[in-house]
Every structure is written in C-alpha cells, then in structure tokens.
Amino acid sequence: MSGPQSRDVTGDGVLPCSAMTRYAALLRGVSPMNCKMDALTRAFTAAGFSDVATVLSSGNVVFTTSSQSTSEIGAMADKAMAEHLGRTFETTYRTID
Fold first, then answer.
1. What is the pLDDT of residues 12-25, one digit of tens each?
2. Three-state SS for 93?
3. Phi and psi (nearest 5°) for 61?
4. What integer is the mean pLDDT of 44-56?
5. pTM
6. Phi/psi of residue 13, nearest 5 degrees
7. Do 28 and 90 form a contact (C-beta atoms < 8 A)?
8. 9 class by beta-carbon count within 10 Å (0-12 exposed, 13-18 middle, 19+ buried)
9. Which residues contact 27 (CB under 8 A, 6 or more apart)?
10. Per-residue model confidence (pLDDT) at position 13
C-alpha cells in the first residue's frame, strides 16, 4: 500500500537521540471523523512504540522508542497504520525536549 511519506524534520534521516527518546508524531488530516484516537493508539503500540498516547482529538501521537532514524520510525508507523487503520497519513516526527 502506498501512502503519504513521513518527513524528517532535520533533513538527514537521523535525529540525535539518547537510548530511549520521546517523540511527537504530527499526523496531517486526522480527525475523530476519519480515525478514532483509540485505534490510532493501538496502531502505534502495535508498531512497537511504548508509552503511546494521543493528544486530545488532534491526531497527534506521543510515544517513546529507541530508534533514532525518522525513516525507520515512519516505516514502522506507516506499516502499523495501514494494517490497523486501513490507511496512512502524512506524518512529521519531532523529538520532545
């Protein structure tokens, strides 16, 4: 399944991170009308991320992972969204300071 591409906010594909890093996934076009927040949480948990939570009904997701590659994080999230939600969303990943 081909879907929107995940974007790396640094431009180099790798974010400098410690062993476990907290990220925010900013999903474009997500609303409670086209994606239930509990289903989105389950999809990110199924992708292997921990401490997953959605932020209100914004479609933004916060999670923890040991991966430092935004490309890898995006691939994992896209695969899980496709399998659990039947679609993917264009997503930007940011570390949480």
1. 555 454 589 999 99
2. strand
3. -125, 135
4. 95
5. 0.78
6. 85, -10
7. yes
8. exposed
9. 40, 59, 60, 61, 89, 90, 91
10. 55
CA distance 84 to 47: 10
Integer angstrom CA distances of residue 11 from 27, 70, 86: 18, 10, 28
Residue type, 80: A
Calculate the alpha carbon distances from 18 to 34, 66, 73, 74 in Å.
34, 8, 15, 18
Q: Give the 3-state DSSP-derived string for 3-63, with helices as H, strands as E and coil as C.
A: CCCCEECCCCCECCCCCCEEEEEEECCCCCCCCCHHHHHHHHHHCCCEEEEECCCCCCEEE
Rounded Cα distance, 67 and 93, in Å = 12
Which pair of tokens denotes residue 80?
């899980």
Report pLDDT for 52. Answer: 97
Residue of 74 and 56 predicted with greater confidence: 74
Burial class from Cβ neighbours inside 10 Å (0-12, 13-18, 19+) for residue 8 reads middle
